[in-house]
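Researcher: Structure prediction, please.
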Amino acid sequence: MTAGLIDDADTWDTFVNESVSGRLFHKWDFMKITEKHTGFTFLPYGIFRGNELICIFPLFKKQIHGLTILLSPPPLQSVIPYLGFIMGQSYDAAKQSKKESMLRSVAEDLESEIAALAPNYLALTQVPGFIDIRQFLREGYEARIHFSYVIDLEPPLAEIWNGLLIQPPHQTAESREERLPLREEHRRLGLLLHRRGTVQRPGHEHPDDQPGLL
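Model: Predicted structure follows.
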C-alpha cells in the first residue's frame, strides 16, 4: 500500500459518498471552507492498494508558537464534531480478519506520513461507530470516549419538549443581550447517539481542552 496527497475533488467526494463512514464533514468543499476559515492547512491524504483508493484521511496542520499541530477535525470553531480517516467499500464488505489486516496496513502507512510531518501534537476524532483503533493503541496513542445523546422524534412535539432539560436562565439572558433571534421552528432535527474515539499522543490534552492554545 502507498500513501499520498489527493488533488482531485471528484475522486475524494466519490469515495466519501460510497463509504459507510463518509459524512458531509468529509466532503471536499467542506474541507476547503474549513481550511479557509480556521487558518489550518488541509492535507487530503489517501491510502492506495495498487490503483484502488481504500482510505482517506483529512488532516489539518498549523504552526502555533513554534509547535506543529495536526488535527482531524480542527478546533471547535470549525463546528465539525468528528472527522478522522474513513475506509472504503472494500473494507465495509470484508470479513473481520480482512478488516483487521487492512486497518493494520492503513495505520502503518498513516503513521509513516505523520512521522514525516513531525508533529508536536496530534489528535483525531473518529466518526460514530468506527471504534477499532487497536493499531493506534499499539503504537502508543491514547484514546478517550465521548458520549452524546439521542432523541426519538416520533413522539408528539410537546412530549419531546417536556423531556428536554430546562434552559438555564442566565443563558437565556445572555442570548437577549446579544440580540439573538428566537423563533419557533417546525423542521425535523436529526440527532445522533455517537461514540467518538479521540486518538492522541500520550501526555497531552486536546487543544479544545486548553483555552488560549488555539
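Model: Residues 182-214 have pLDDT under 50 and may be disordered.
Researcher: Thanks, that helps.
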